[in-house]
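Dear Dr. K.,

Following up on our conversation at the group meeting, I've run the structure prediction for Alkaline/neutral invertase from Sesamum radiatum. I'm pasting the input sequence below exactly as I used it, so you can double-check it against your construct before we proceed with anything downstream. Let me know if the numbering doesn't match what you have in your notebook.
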Amino acid sequence: MSTLTVDVQQNGSVKNVDSSSVHELDEYDFSRLPDRPRNLNLERKRSFDERSLTELPLGFSPHPPSRADNFYRAFDVLDSFFSPGRRSGLSTPKSLFGYGPSNEPHPMVAEAWDNLRRSLVYFRGQPVGTIAALDNSEENLNYDQVFVRDFVPSALAFLMNGEPEIVKNFILKTLRLQSWEKRIDRFQLGEGVMPASFKVLHDPTRNTETLIADFGESAIGRVAPVDSGFWWIILLRAYTKSTGDTSLAERPECQKGMRLILSLCLSEGFDTFPTLLCADGCSMIDRRMVSALFYTTLPYQNINSYARGSDAGVYGYPIEIQALFFMALRCALLLLKQDGPGKEFIERVIKRLHALSYHMRSYFWLDLKQLNDIYRYKTEEYSHTAVNKFNVMPDSLPEWVFDFMPLHGGYFIGNVGPSNMDFRWFCLGNCIAVLSSLATHEQAMAIMDLIESRWEELVGDMPLKVSYPAIESHEWRIITGCDPKNTRWSYHNGGSWPVLLWLLTAACIKTGRPRLPGVPLNLLKPGYRKMVGQSITMESSGDTLGSKLVNTKHGRLQVIWLQDDARRSFSFGYGRDRGRQANETGLEAIVLFLIPNLVNFVPKQDSNL
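The predicted structure tokens came back this morning:
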């Protein structure tokens, strides 16, 4: 564990950036890429109105084709939500809508804000984050720590509620931890690695407080977090966008922190792909879900029977990391200064973005046409003209994907590598692809079409599935190593994660379907608390947060999404992102609150797999 016993310096020098210095970078438009992936010609179902939310009345949505009662009841609740009206310290102001004739706080929202405030962690008298969960039943685990990825939805809630100081403190504290030596046994990690989590150690005898960081040396499986650095850059951009305060990102230490993270990701090596090679367990899915190494233990005659329809796993090039990588690169372009080292990194990032976007849109994308193309692939093709560039075996196509793929719709598959495709749906990666505009406009609409068409499978009555489908039976034994936490429909193996609803909500609003996330909000009611998983953590800070849709003039949700590159030219460089916040109109989704005490909740499943 790495420790920090001193407070963070917050007096970095600030240098103004001339926004005109980046005008020459406007020529970099991803829409002008040669040999762009084909555009999808979709005749989408429009059961959800796609007008701007500012054009919609505050009443009910148009009658959907199914589950109408759920939709209407959900929006009755949505329109009545607002935060508690306390205004002391970190209190929460009232939102635009009251609850009932007396304009009192909605009990659900009040309870959620209370849980969020109880999860705050203080260092030297200042809030620096929120703990992973308020559950004290698992004292030997690390749920009492502040996780970088888990704090992001909490940070967005504070930003959109006009409370940016806690986010600023978190950014600076984690940045200071980045500079400390990171060593596992006798091996030293890269300088730019961000911690997975940290906690505050109180010493009542000496009356001191110490920050203790975990870079993977204490984690289950001893895997360093790849996604922490990406979330840190994304949150820094969200803070800058929300507050209009450019001085934080302009600080020399913040600029250096971004460059260190980018150095790790942009380093040249043996890889022939622009995607980022990752180990198992390096992101939100932090447990073994890979199978390739274990096929060698099977009898030869059984290999095909187990390989057909099995999943490649997280090891390799998982969609979650690639989407976060893309989004972090785009955010870095808006934050990097045009000085000597910053200019060099901007050029490297631009080149990588071009290659990465083309690769992901071409080879990770799956729709009905691409599925039929893969089914007819020839193998063992040699030369640069090969169609089956990854030498994917058509017999490896799982049977479920043919039934799962709708006529109109598509998604980014879980993993792509040599002779290796993971066809599973991963919610976080696809939602980030929409928000970051890694998905083209047509692809983003196709993703939403798939979610709508396969609502029962991907959302169901206990939102929201982290992946689909679940691995079970002998395949579960091989891929997970008989992991009891990852039994079918549990935890990372198709488990339900309500915390992902904020990403789904943001993706729905960005694609013009603001009514779609109303259903899971109505489904989350106290009656479902009896349906919990075998390995559950109660009162997770992240799962306390959900989605509230508010119609306002200035769009606050845009602090987290990036514009579609097919519709406008990118503005590379820090200065271009200034001054637009006050003029942007559109949609606001305050990342607020679902019923607390619901964490990865799924029905208790049979263990006879």
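Two things stood out to me. The mean pLDDT is 72. Residues 392 and 420 are 6 Å apart (CA to CA).

Best regards,
J.T.
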